[in-house]
């Protein structure tokens, strides 16, 4: 013991760090902040450090070359002892980090922590969110598979929308005229040097301000933040009623961080590493690129935006969002902190959560994408064929061969790009069916040039049978009046 | 030498030192910026886009649309398979051709050709195009990108070399009519 004490004293005389460290550890915090609600920031920091370690371990093997990256990932997965586990830890760590950063952000927003004097802490936090998402996106590119390749194409397409400098922005992003070796190299530099550097710098600033200004006190309804009096009030909360950070509050942080690390490890063991998917060979076009989980909402949004709104929303939307987040603490630096008295804040969070959740859920099913192989892999259910005439069955064949099934479902099988056709005969008369098939419209291609008159007749004959037994098909009342009831009798 | 002079002289030396560093900084910044922007500057060089052979005409029967691949003209040794690019070749009537980029005009995903329904469909956001490349439905604002083409000694050539994107389609034939008439 005495040797250790002597060594400590020897080091401290030279480093002079003992006192500041002790002061930092023992600084008083408001009693109520020793809470399970205050553990997300430290957990995010823990996961970030975990990502640095696992990232360095991966860099020992990974080759940031367009020609070799995919092979080196295969080697990591299959050729190196427990390489798959390190990849899985890094991949799941990434997901947990984004999730924890988002939860942390929601918590400090609802607890009013961005108000005076912590405005700048929040702003740096917003930058931390952006660089965290930047890490997630660039990391997805380093997993250099088909999704990464076509994801880069989507990124380039979005960048090309920027007025005037768009074409140059694309070349700058790709490092050349196409997605190739230079592209991967620069995303590697971003993911491994540039963004982590920013992340470390911002984390340092963020932590420094948390320590200097003190952790946000537990918000009490009615306790109003005023510039003139806040510092004095906070001083009383910490120095008269507070507890030392160590050990008063820190044990919950330690427990939660440990729990998160265990959760990452469990996910890594149970679910394994992410990909890589197919080889990044652009001549293999049988692929349906999907982004990683935290960008799925964007993927869904891109399919719903009308073409005319796409460029403004893609380019101006994120800028407005970031500016709103950055200036929020300046606009609302005083006032009520408690979420119980800030209904708009709570509603905003709920609205954003529901919107992102819905878009993410939709993107997991991608109902807007045609099911590319439905026409050849999903037969028409038998109940739609039984008791039909030869012409109607021929129409069913046309329905399959002309890939109608890729966009239209029958009995929940097939694409969902267009409406389900199980009951289409109830909605559309024969003439309307013919017009819709030949002219298209309402987001359906026109098939007039692709169907012979015989094929159209057969197809429409089949479509006319698609109605429940209890419901008669739609018919044109005027035709009955002109032709007489015998000519237009339904099946 | 009095103190005032000493301080002002040292202050002047500090300023001079900072100024010198500033000059050096500018001198270094020029090559660094040029290095960083080399992908943009290089675009101006001849040969960035070249005539590339897609193979003999016999591979592209009249009235059909076939997948073709080419090696990008500007490559590095470590580009691997990423420099192999696919495109769709439509032989309209034995005389006229259309060569479409594989990239959807919406956000660049690879479109697939369905000969039975004469449609190109995109797997990402559901864009669809007719056989002549014009927009049929979905989020794309325009038809498929087309390459300029020419036929030389029984081979089909296209002018290619950069990823077509919605904002910089100027280097590919802008629309169906112009594309079909440009070369050949």
Structural features, described:
The complex is a heterodimer of chains A (491) and B (184). By secondary structure, chain A is an all-alpha fold. Chain A folds into two domains: 30-365, Up-down Bundle (Cytochrome Bc1 Complex, Chain C), CATH 1.20.810.10; 374-488, Cytochrome c-like domain (Cytochrome Bc1 Complex, Chain D, domain 2), CATH 1.10.760.10. Chain A is 63% helix and 2% strand. In chain A, the strands form two sheets. Chain A has a two-stranded antiparallel ribbon with strand order 1-3. A two-stranded antiparallel sheet of chain A has the order 2-4. Chain B has 184 residues and is of the alpha+beta class. Chain B has two domains: 3-36; 50-182, Rieske Iron-sulfur Protein, CATH 2.102.10. A four-stranded antiparallel beta sheet of chain B has the order 2-3-4-9. Mean pLDDT of chain B is 83; it is low at 173-184. Chains A and B meet through helix 7, helix 8, helix 9, helix 13 and helix 14 of A and strand 3 of B.
Task: Please describe the structure with a list of short key phrases separated by commas or semicolons.
heterodimer; A: 491 residues; mainly alpha; Cytochrome Bc1 Complex, Chain C; Cytochrome Bc1 Complex, Chain D, domain 2; 2 domains; two-stranded antiparallel sheet; two-stranded antiparallel ribbon; 21 helices; B: 184 residues; alpha+beta; Rieske Iron-sulfur Protein; 4-stranded antiparallel β-sheet; 3 helices; elongated; disordered C terminus
């Amino acid at each position: 013991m005495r040797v250790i004490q002597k060594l400590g004293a020897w080091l401290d005389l030279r480093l002079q760090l003992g006192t500041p460290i002790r002061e930092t550890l023992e600084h008083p915090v408001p009693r109520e902040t020793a809470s399970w609600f205050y553990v997300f920031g430290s957990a995010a920091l823990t996961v970030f450090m975990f990502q640095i370690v696992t990232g360095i371990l991966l860099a020992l093997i990974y080759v940031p070359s367009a020609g070799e990256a995919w092979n080196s990932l295969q080697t990591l997965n299959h050729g190196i002892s427990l390489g798959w586990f390190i990849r899985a830890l890094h991949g799941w760590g990434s997901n947990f980090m984004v999730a924890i950063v988002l939860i942390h952000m929601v918590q400090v927003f609802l607890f009013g922590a961005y108000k005076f004097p912590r405005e700048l802490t929040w702003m740096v936090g917003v930058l931390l969110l952006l660089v965290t998402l930047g890490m997630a996106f660039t990391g997805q590119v380093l997993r250099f598979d088909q999704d990464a390749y076509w994801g880069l194409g989507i990124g380039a397409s979005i960048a090309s929308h920027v007025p005037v400098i768009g074409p140059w922005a694309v070349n700058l992003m790709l490092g050349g005229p196409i997605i190739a070796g230079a592209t991967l190299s620069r995303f590697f530099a971003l993911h491994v040097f540039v963004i982590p550097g920013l992340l470390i710098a911002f984390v340092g600033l963020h932590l420094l301000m948390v320590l200097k200004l003190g952790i946000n006190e537990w918000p009490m309804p009615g306790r109003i933040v005023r510039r003139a009096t806040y510092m004095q009030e906070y001083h009383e909360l910490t120095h008269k009623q507070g507890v030392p950070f160590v050990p008063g509050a820190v044990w919950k942080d330690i427990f939660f961080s440990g729990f998160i690390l265990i959760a990452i490890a469990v996910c890594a063991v149970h679910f394994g590493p992410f990909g890589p998917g197919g080889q990044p060979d652009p001549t293999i076009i049988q692929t349906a690129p999907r982004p990683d989980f935290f960008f799925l909402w964007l993927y869904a949004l891109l399919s719903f935006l009308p073409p005319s709104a796409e460029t403004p929303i893609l380019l101006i939307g994120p800028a407005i969002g970031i500016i709103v987040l950055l200036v929020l603490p300046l606009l609302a630096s005083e006032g009520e902190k408690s979420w119980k008295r800030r209904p708009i804040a709570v509603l905003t969070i709920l609205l954003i959560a529901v919107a992102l959740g819905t878009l993410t859920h939709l993107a997991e099913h991608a109902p807007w994408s045609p099911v590319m192989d439905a026409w050849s892999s999903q037969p028409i259910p038998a109940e739609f064929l039984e008791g039909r005439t030869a012409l109607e069955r021929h129409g069913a064949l046309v329905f399959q061969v002309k890939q109608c099934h890729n966009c239209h479902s029958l009995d929940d099988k097939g694409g969902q790009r267009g409406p389900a056709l199980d009951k289409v005969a109830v909605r559309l008369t024969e003439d309307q069916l013919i017009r819709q098939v030949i002219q298209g419209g309402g987001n359906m291609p026109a098939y007039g040039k692709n169907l012979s008159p015989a094929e159209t007749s057969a197809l429409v004959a089949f479509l006319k049978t698609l109605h429940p037994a209890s419901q008669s098909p739609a018919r044109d009342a005027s035709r009955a009046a002109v032709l007489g009831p015998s000519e237009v009798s339904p099946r | 030498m009095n103190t005032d002079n000493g301080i002002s002289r040292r202050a002047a030396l500090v300023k001079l030192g900072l100024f010198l560093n500033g000059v050096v900084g500018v001198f270094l910044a020029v090559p660094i910026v040029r290095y960083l922007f080399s992908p943009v500057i290089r675009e101006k060089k001849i040969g960035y886009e070249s005539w590339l052979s897609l193979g003999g005409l016999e591979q592209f029967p009249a009235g059909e649309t076939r997948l073709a691949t080419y090696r990008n003209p500007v490559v590095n040794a470590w580009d691997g398979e990423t420099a192999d690019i696919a495109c769709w070749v439509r032989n309209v009537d034995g005389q006229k051709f259309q060569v479409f980029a594989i990239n959807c005009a919406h956000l660049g995903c690879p479109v697939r050709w369905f000969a039975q329904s004469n449609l190109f469909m995109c797997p990402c956001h559901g864009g669809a195009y007719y056989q002549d490349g014009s927009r049929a439905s979905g989020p794309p604002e325009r038809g498929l990108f087309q390459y300029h083409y020419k036929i030389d000694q029984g081979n089909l050539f296209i002018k290619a070399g950069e990823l077509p994107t919605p904002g910089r389609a100027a280097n590919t034939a802008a629309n169906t009519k112009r594309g079909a008439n440009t070369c050949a």
